[in-house]
Protein backbone atom coordinates (compact mmCIF):
# COMPACT_ATOMS: atom_id res chain seq x y z
CA UNK A 1 0.00 0.00 0.00
CA UNK A 2 1.36 3.44 -0.92
CA UNK A 3 2.47 5.55 2.03
CA UNK A 4 0.41 8.64 2.71
CA UNK A 5 -0.51 11.05 5.49
CA UNK A 6 -0.40 9.56 9.00
CA UNK A 7 -4.08 10.42 9.38
CA UNK A 8 -6.16 8.81 6.65
CA UNK A 9 -9.16 11.05 7.43
CA UNK A 10 -9.02 14.60 8.75
CA UNK A 11 -12.20 16.53 9.57
CA UNK A 12 -11.53 20.24 10.12
CA UNK A 13 -13.99 22.84 11.46
CA UNK A 14 -16.89 21.04 9.80
CA UNK A 15 -20.21 22.89 9.50
CA UNK A 16 -23.26 21.28 7.94
CA UNK A 17 -27.03 21.73 8.11
CA UNK A 18 -30.16 20.18 6.67
CA UNK A 19 -32.04 23.38 5.91
CA UNK A 20 -32.52 25.16 9.24
CA UNK A 21 -31.47 22.11 11.25
CA UNK A 22 -27.81 22.46 12.20
CA UNK A 23 -25.98 19.12 12.37
CA UNK A 24 -22.30 20.10 12.77
CA UNK A 25 -20.97 23.35 14.20
CA UNK A 26 -17.21 23.23 14.01
CA UNK A 27 -16.50 19.51 14.32
CA UNK A 28 -12.85 18.46 14.04
CA UNK A 29 -11.35 14.97 14.38
CA UNK A 30 -8.68 12.71 12.90
CA UNK A 31 -8.68 9.02 11.93
CA UNK A 32 -5.14 7.52 12.00
CA UNK A 33 -4.16 4.91 9.43
CA UNK A 34 -4.50 1.31 10.49
CA UNK A 35 -6.70 2.02 13.50
CA UNK A 36 -10.28 1.16 14.41
CA UNK A 37 -12.00 4.35 15.55
CA UNK A 38 -15.50 4.63 16.99
CA UNK A 39 -17.64 7.72 16.62
CA UNK A 40 -20.28 7.56 19.32
CA UNK A 41 -23.35 9.70 19.75
CA UNK A 42 -27.05 9.53 20.39
CA UNK A 43 -29.69 9.16 17.72
CA UNK A 44 -29.77 12.26 15.52
CA UNK A 45 -26.27 13.40 16.45
CA UNK A 46 -25.10 13.22 12.82
CA UNK A 47 -23.06 10.02 12.83
CA UNK A 48 -24.43 8.67 9.53
CA UNK A 49 -24.30 12.16 8.03
CA UNK A 50 -20.59 12.30 8.83
CA UNK A 51 -20.01 9.13 6.81
CA UNK A 52 -21.85 10.67 3.85
CA UNK A 53 -19.65 13.74 4.09
CA UNK A 54 -16.51 11.60 4.18
CA UNK A 55 -17.72 9.71 1.12
CA UNK A 56 -18.57 12.90 -0.76
CA UNK A 57 -22.33 12.30 -0.95
CA UNK A 58 -22.81 15.57 0.90
CA UNK A 59 -20.72 18.76 0.90
CA UNK A 60 -19.97 20.86 3.99
CA UNK A 61 -21.16 24.43 4.33
CA UNK A 62 -17.83 25.35 5.91
CA UNK A 63 -14.67 23.52 6.81
CA UNK A 64 -13.48 20.43 5.03
CA UNK A 65 -12.69 16.73 5.03
CA UNK A 66 -9.49 15.24 3.71
CA UNK A 67 -9.22 11.56 2.86
CA UNK A 68 -5.76 10.26 1.98
CA UNK A 69 -4.64 13.87 1.65
CA UNK A 70 -7.40 14.87 -0.79
CA UNK A 71 -10.07 17.46 0.02
CA UNK A 72 -13.16 15.39 -0.75
CA UNK A 73 -15.65 18.11 -1.70
CA UNK A 74 -13.18 19.77 -4.07
CA UNK A 75 -12.67 16.66 -6.24
CA UNK A 76 -14.14 16.44 -9.73
CA UNK A 77 -16.50 13.49 -10.41
CA UNK A 78 -13.78 11.22 -11.84
CA UNK A 79 -11.40 11.86 -8.94
CA UNK A 80 -14.20 11.40 -6.41
CA UNK A 81 -15.19 8.09 -8.00
CA UNK A 82 -11.56 6.95 -7.89
CA UNK A 83 -11.37 7.82 -4.20
CA UNK A 84 -14.64 6.02 -3.45
CA UNK A 85 -13.25 2.86 -5.02
CA UNK A 86 -10.83 2.79 -2.08
CA UNK A 87 -13.69 2.92 0.44
CA UNK A 88 -15.87 0.10 1.73
CA UNK A 89 -19.24 0.71 3.34
CA UNK A 90 -21.38 -1.46 5.58
CA UNK A 91 -24.80 0.17 5.57
CA UNK A 92 -27.04 0.51 8.61
CA UNK A 93 -29.72 -1.62 6.93
CA UNK A 94 -27.08 -3.93 5.36
CA UNK A 95 -28.18 -2.77 1.90
CA UNK A 96 -27.97 -6.15 0.16
CA UNK A 97 -29.62 -6.58 -3.24
CA UNK A 98 -32.63 -8.70 -2.34
CA UNK A 99 -32.93 -10.35 -5.78
CA UNK A 100 -29.29 -11.44 -5.89
CA UNK A 101 -27.74 -14.37 -4.05
CA UNK A 102 -25.09 -13.90 -1.39
CA UNK A 103 -22.43 -14.77 -3.97
CA UNK A 104 -23.78 -12.33 -6.55
CA UNK A 105 -24.03 -9.51 -4.00
CA UNK A 106 -20.26 -9.63 -3.57
CA UNK A 107 -19.45 -10.44 -7.18
CA UNK A 108 -21.49 -7.44 -8.38
CA UNK A 109 -19.25 -5.04 -6.46
CA UNK A 110 -16.03 -6.61 -7.75
CA UNK A 111 -17.27 -6.66 -11.36
CA UNK A 112 -18.41 -3.04 -11.08
CA UNK A 113 -14.95 -1.85 -10.10
CA UNK A 114 -12.60 -4.22 -11.90
CA UNK A 115 -12.42 -6.05 -15.22
CA UNK A 116 -11.35 -9.47 -13.94
CA UNK A 117 -11.75 -13.03 -15.22
CA UNK A 118 -14.74 -14.79 -13.65
CA UNK A 119 -12.49 -17.41 -12.07
CA UNK A 120 -10.65 -14.67 -10.19
CA UNK A 121 -13.95 -13.02 -9.21
CA UNK A 122 -15.07 -16.39 -7.82
CA UNK A 123 -11.88 -16.77 -5.80
CA UNK A 124 -12.19 -13.28 -4.33
CA UNK A 125 -15.85 -13.76 -3.40
CA UNK A 126 -15.25 -17.11 -1.73
CA UNK A 127 -12.24 -15.78 0.20
CA UNK A 128 -14.24 -12.85 1.55
CA UNK A 129 -17.19 -15.06 2.48
CA UNK A 130 -14.83 -17.50 4.16
CA UNK A 131 -13.37 -14.64 6.19
CA UNK A 132 -16.81 -14.02 7.74
CA UNK A 133 -17.65 -17.72 8.04
CA UNK A 134 -20.31 -17.80 5.32
CA UNK A 135 -18.66 -19.48 2.33
CA UNK A 136 -21.25 -22.27 2.68
CA UNK A 137 -24.09 -19.74 2.37
CA UNK A 138 -23.00 -18.38 -1.02
CA UNK A 139 -26.08 -19.63 -2.87
CA UNK A 140 -28.61 -18.39 -0.30
CA UNK A 141 -30.81 -15.36 -0.90
CA UNK A 142 -30.74 -12.39 1.49
CA UNK A 143 -34.33 -13.03 2.54
CA UNK A 144 -33.33 -16.47 3.82
CA UNK A 145 -30.58 -15.18 6.10
CA UNK A 146 -30.80 -14.45 9.80
CA UNK A 147 -30.07 -10.92 11.01
CA UNK A 148 -26.56 -11.84 12.08
CA UNK A 149 -25.82 -13.62 8.80
CA UNK A 150 -27.11 -10.64 6.84
CA UNK A 151 -24.72 -8.33 8.69
CA UNK A 152 -21.81 -10.69 8.04
CA UNK A 153 -22.56 -10.73 4.31
CA UNK A 154 -22.74 -6.94 4.37
CA UNK A 155 -19.37 -6.91 6.14
CA UNK A 156 -17.87 -9.24 3.53
CA UNK A 157 -19.14 -6.95 0.78
CA UNK A 158 -17.67 -3.89 2.52
CA UNK A 159 -14.19 -5.43 2.31
CA UNK A 160 -14.69 -7.23 -1.02
CA UNK A 161 -12.36 -4.91 -2.95
CA UNK A 162 -9.72 -4.57 -0.19
CA UNK A 163 -10.44 -0.88 0.50
CA UNK A 164 -8.06 1.37 2.41
CA UNK A 165 -10.99 2.70 4.47
CA UNK A 166 -13.92 0.66 5.79
CA UNK A 167 -16.92 2.49 7.26
CA UNK A 168 -19.56 0.78 9.38
CA UNK A 169 -22.89 2.49 9.99
CA UNK A 170 -24.51 1.10 13.18
CA UNK A 171 -23.14 -2.43 12.59
CA UNK A 172 -24.43 -3.73 15.94
CA UNK A 173 -28.04 -2.45 15.81
CA UNK A 174 -30.72 -5.09 16.28
CA UNK A 175 -28.37 -8.03 16.78
CA UNK A 176 -28.56 -10.68 19.47
CA UNK A 177 -25.59 -10.78 21.89
CA UNK A 178 -23.82 -13.64 20.09
CA UNK A 179 -24.16 -12.12 16.61
CA UNK A 180 -23.17 -8.73 17.98
CA UNK A 181 -19.97 -10.12 19.47
CA UNK A 182 -19.18 -12.00 16.24
CA UNK A 183 -19.54 -8.84 14.11
CA UNK A 184 -17.44 -6.75 16.51
CA UNK A 185 -14.68 -9.35 16.59
CA UNK A 186 -14.71 -9.67 12.78
CA UNK A 187 -14.35 -5.92 12.31
CA UNK A 188 -11.31 -5.89 14.57
CA UNK A 189 -9.66 -9.00 13.07
CA UNK A 190 -10.29 -8.00 9.46
CA UNK A 191 -8.96 -4.50 10.05
CA UNK A 192 -5.69 -5.88 11.38
CA UNK A 193 -5.37 -8.75 8.89
CA UNK A 194 -6.07 -6.63 5.80
CA UNK A 195 -4.29 -3.48 6.93
CA UNK A 196 -7.46 -1.38 6.81
CA UNK A 197 -8.50 1.77 8.60
CA UNK A 198 -11.98 1.44 10.08
CA UNK A 199 -14.60 3.91 11.26
CA UNK A 200 -17.49 2.57 13.33
CA UNK A 201 -20.39 4.93 13.97
CA UNK A 202 -22.67 3.61 16.66
CA UNK A 203 -24.57 4.30 19.86
CA UNK A 204 -23.54 0.89 21.25
CA UNK A 205 -21.05 1.85 23.93
CA UNK A 206 -20.21 -1.47 25.53
CA UNK A 207 -19.40 -3.37 22.33
CA UNK A 208 -17.41 -0.62 20.65
CA UNK A 209 -15.26 -0.13 23.74
CA UNK A 210 -14.04 -3.72 23.39
CA UNK A 211 -12.65 -3.51 19.86
CA UNK A 212 -11.64 0.07 19.03
CA UNK A 213 -8.35 1.94 19.46
CA UNK A 214 -9.83 5.40 19.89
CA UNK A 215 -13.21 6.99 20.51
CA UNK A 216 -14.83 10.28 19.60
CA UNK A 217 -18.14 11.28 21.19
CA UNK A 218 -20.24 13.88 19.36
CA UNK A 219 -23.37 15.79 20.37
CA UNK A 220 -25.01 19.11 19.53
CA UNK A 221 -22.87 19.40 16.41
CA UNK A 222 -19.59 19.36 18.30
CA UNK A 223 -16.98 17.04 19.72
CA UNK A 224 -17.85 16.35 23.35
CA UNK A 225 -14.93 14.11 24.21
CA UNK A 226 -12.25 11.80 22.87
CA UNK A 227 -9.65 9.30 23.97
CA UNK A 228 -8.81 5.65 24.30
CA UNK A 229 -11.54 3.42 25.78
CA UNK A 230 -9.87 3.62 29.22
CA UNK A 231 -9.55 7.40 29.01
CA UNK A 232 -13.19 8.08 28.14
CA UNK A 233 -14.46 5.61 30.73
CA UNK A 234 -12.49 7.34 33.46
CA UNK A 235 -13.51 10.85 32.33
CA UNK A 236 -15.31 13.08 34.83
CA UNK A 237 -16.99 15.09 32.06
CA UNK A 238 -20.77 15.23 32.80
CA UNK A 239 -21.83 14.48 29.23
CA UNK A 240 -19.41 11.57 28.75
CA UNK A 241 -20.35 10.18 32.14
CA UNK A 242 -24.07 10.26 31.28
CA UNK A 243 -23.71 8.88 27.77
CA UNK A 244 -21.20 6.11 28.45
CA UNK A 245 -22.99 4.93 31.58
CA UNK A 246 -26.53 5.40 30.18
CA UNK A 247 -27.58 7.59 33.12
CA UNK A 248 -31.10 9.07 32.98
CA UNK A 249 -30.04 12.41 34.46
CA UNK A 250 -27.44 14.71 32.98
CA UNK A 251 -26.85 17.37 30.33
CA UNK A 252 -28.37 15.33 27.46
CA UNK A 253 -31.79 16.69 26.64
CA UNK A 254 -34.71 14.36 26.08
CA UNK A 255 -36.98 16.86 24.30
CA UNK A 256 -36.14 18.22 20.87
CA UNK A 257 -36.14 22.07 21.09
CA UNK A 258 -39.72 23.39 21.01
CA UNK A 259 -41.87 26.03 22.72
CA UNK A 260 -43.38 25.05 26.08
CA UNK A 261 -46.30 22.62 25.67
CA UNK A 262 -48.69 24.98 27.42
CA UNK A 263 -47.81 27.70 24.95
CA UNK A 264 -48.14 25.33 22.00
CA UNK A 265 -51.60 24.13 23.12
CA UNK A 266 -52.66 27.63 24.21
CA UNK A 267 -53.37 26.47 27.75
CA UNK A 268 -53.77 29.33 30.20
CA UNK A 269 -52.28 29.02 33.62
CA UNK A 270 -54.74 28.79 36.49
CA UNK A 271 -52.30 30.49 38.86
CA UNK A 272 -53.03 33.96 40.10
Task: Indicate the topology.
Layout: E1 7-18, E2 21-32, E3 36-40, H1 47-54, E4 62-67, E5 70-71, H2 77-84, E6 87-90, H3 102-113, H4 118-131, H5 147-158, E7 165-169, H6 177-194, E8 197-202, H7 205-211, E9 214-219, E10 222-227, H8 229-233, H9 238-245, H10 261-264
Parallel strand pairs: 3-8, 3-9, 6-7, 7-8
Antiparallel strand pairs: 1-2, 1-4, 4-5, 9-10
> Which range best describes the helical content: under 10%, 10-25%, 25-40%, 40-55%, 55-70% or over 70%?
25-40%
Strand content: 15-25%
Number of strands: 10
- Outline: globular
The string of secondary-structure elements, in order, is: EEEHEEHEHHHEHEHEEHHH
Number of helices: 10
In short, what is this structure?
The protein is α/β, with parallel strands linked by helices and 272 residues long.
Walk me through this protein's architecture.
The protein is α/β, with parallel strands linked by helices and 272 residues long. It has ten helices and ten strands. The strands form two sheets. Strands 6-7-8-3-9-10 form a six-stranded mixed beta sheet, sandwiched between helices. The chain is globular. The termini are far apart. The mean pLDDT is 88.
Amino acid sequence: MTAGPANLVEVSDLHFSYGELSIFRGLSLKIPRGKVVAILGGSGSGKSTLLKLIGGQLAPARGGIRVDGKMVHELDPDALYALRRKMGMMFQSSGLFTDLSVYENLAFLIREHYDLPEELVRSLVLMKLDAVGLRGARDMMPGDLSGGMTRRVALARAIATDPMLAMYDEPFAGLDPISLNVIATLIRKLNDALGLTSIIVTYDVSESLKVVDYIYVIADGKLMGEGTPDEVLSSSDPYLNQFLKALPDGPVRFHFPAPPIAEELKIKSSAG
